[in-house]
Design a protein that fits this description.
Elements lengths: L1 H5 L4 H7 L7 H10 L11 H13 L1 E4 L5 H11 L5 E2 L19 E3 L2 H4 L3 H7 L2 H11 L4 E10 L21 E7 L10 E4 L16 H7 L5 E4 L6 E4 L5 E3 L7 E9 L11 E3 L13 E3 L1
Parallel strand pairs: 11-12
Antiparallel strand pairs: 1-8, 2-3, 3-4, 4-10, 5-8, 5-10, 6-7, 6-9
């Protein structure tokens, strides 16, 4: 298995960027790499400029009421009958939402199934998201991950990404998060430390305690992302963040990642789809037009 991973395209660049965690060196390297990638036609949109400014300054851009209830329902219907796979150990497969084992913290749908949803693909290729990602990345974005997952109120200790951590997926990347259920303080709100994407504190690749975060960052920068179904945000998850474990209510969330490069630890098996209406470069890891 390890040998197979070593043969993946881009694995050595991926490994290298995980050893260089200090700002601004990561940014310089990312900008150099972006210059060699295709460009995305720029649009003079003040909203895009505002989003990129928020991302660069604070690491997060908030998007209330991003999606209407009809399209939220379409996504839910698209995944309603699909099996789920447990994200954390022991990684059980083919789980049923209506018969979920009581100790499962997070379970996700398979990306290959998400590609069949017109609504999800429309969101992932939203011109505003692509323009914002392109201006932030410095090149045409690559959709490098698409995920939809449930978080469950199981109790017990937080697991893996339910603790504070930094994502180190590529030299530069940005993630879009969309709540598909209402999220209050009991529903596992996402937490993000504003401005931490530019900080050289707590850059070790490990799970980080709430106490360590509080000792290094102001309380007012420790955001708790509650919101209604349809609220969304773009975030630089190189900054410190975590998926807070739900206490009472389960949470459904959609995530799309945009990066300069493919994320080498993911397995990409592009589907061949007819009449694919979106940019083939942006979607090349997941879709090959027939």
């Amino acid at each position: 298995m390890q040998l197979k991973k070593l043969t993946r395209p881009g694995i050595f660049s991926y490994a290298a960027q995980r050893t260089i965690l200090k700002s601004p060196l990561r940014g310089w390297i990312a900008s150099f790499l972006a210059k060699g990638r295709p460009r995305f036609p720029a649009a003079p949109d003040p909203k895009v400029s505002a989003a990129v400014s928020d991302l660069n300054t604070h690491g997060i851009y908030l998007m209330q009421n991003y999606l209407d209830s009809d399209r939220i329902e379409k996504i839910k219907q698209a995944v309603a009958s699909l099996p789920l796979d447990e994200r954390f150990s022991p990684q059980r497969k083919n789980l049923d939402l209506d018969d979920m084992p009581a100790d499962v913290h997070v379970a996700e749908y398979r990306t290959s199934a998400l590609l069949q949803s017109d609504t999800i693909m429309e969101i992932a290729n939203d011109p505003f998201l692509l323009q914002t990602a392109a201006q932030y990345l410095g090149c045409k974005p690559t959709i490098s991950n698409m995920s939809v997952w449930w978080s469950f109120p199981t109790g017990g200790e937080a697991q893996e990404a339910e603790n504070y951590h930094r994502d180190v997926d590529d030299w530069r990347f940005v993630k879009f998060f969309l709540y598909l259920t209402d999220v209050d303080s009991d529903s596992g709100p996402h937490r993000f430390v504003k401005n931490s994407h530019r900080s050289n504190r707590l850059t070790n690749l490990k799970r980080i305690t709430d106490e360590e975060v509080s000792a290094n960052f102001p309380q007012e920068d420790q955001l708790e992302m509650t919101g209604k179904a349809g609220d969304a945000f773009m975030e630089l998850t190189f900054g410190l963040h975590k998926g807070q474990p739900p206490r009472k209510h389960r949470r459904l969330l959609l995530q799309v990642e945009y990066s300069i490069n493919p994320v080498a630890v993911y397995d990409y098996s592009p589907l061949k789809l007819e009449n694919f209406p979106y940019d083939p470069y942006v979607n090349r890891l997941y879709v090959t037009p027939k």
